[in-house]
């Protein structure tokens, strides 16, 4: 379950799971594309300010890139990105998730982003174009197996996030990122950038224990926890469970 203020985009993924179940129990068919748009509509109704990137990331397996044209009604398309042989396994050995303990409610961050967008500030408009270009560069790095370039895209992405929502980087998170900088190709806060979870692409494989010790030995960062993660390659599914367990 998503915690209050969870910054990983889990609320959109949870909404997608709920919508999939509702489609199933009502006898209606659904696919990933319809769920992506259903969650987008739901988030607008709930005024949480969510877009479509989180459900694309969580409902579609593997590596993918989502695109939408600047037109209404909004139509999201998703392209699965094919990886070179062995690159998936390599990524899983270099990818880590760091819990920083610093969270903020994504809705508040997104309100700042929307205000900046509506103001049509030149820096914001340029940054939006740069976000699109960086996403395409990231997809290319995946296709070619360029680990260092992929890390550079991650760090660039975080700088672009900060441009969209100034103040989204807690001081404690900055300390963590500075501490990890020599050991990683790239890093970024996940989701809306609330500071709860940081994902890093390490220069060396299998660095979970090394990174954990590094943080534990840095004053003020002892409570951070490091977790191994893997890219999910399985499509989501809705399963029926028959019978009600007797807890009496």
Automatic annotation (TrEMBL):
Q: Which InterPro entries match?
A: GHMP_Kinase-Related (IPR052203), GHMP_kinase_C_dom (IPR013750), GHMP_kinase_C_sf (IPR036554)
- GO terms for MF: fucokinase activity
- The keyword Protease is annotated on this UniProt entry: no
In Gene Ontology terms, what is a biological process of this protein? GDP-L-fucose salvage
- Keywords for this protein: Kinase, Transferase
| One Pfam family named in its UniProt record | GHMP_kinases_C
The organism named in the record is: Aquarana catesbeiana (American bullfrog)
**What protein name does the entry list?**
GHMP kinase C-terminal domain-containing protein
Domain GHMP kinase C-terminal as annotated: residue spans: 140-213
Classification via Gene3D superfamilies = 3.30.230.120
Q: Say which domain of life the source belongs to.
A: Eukaryota
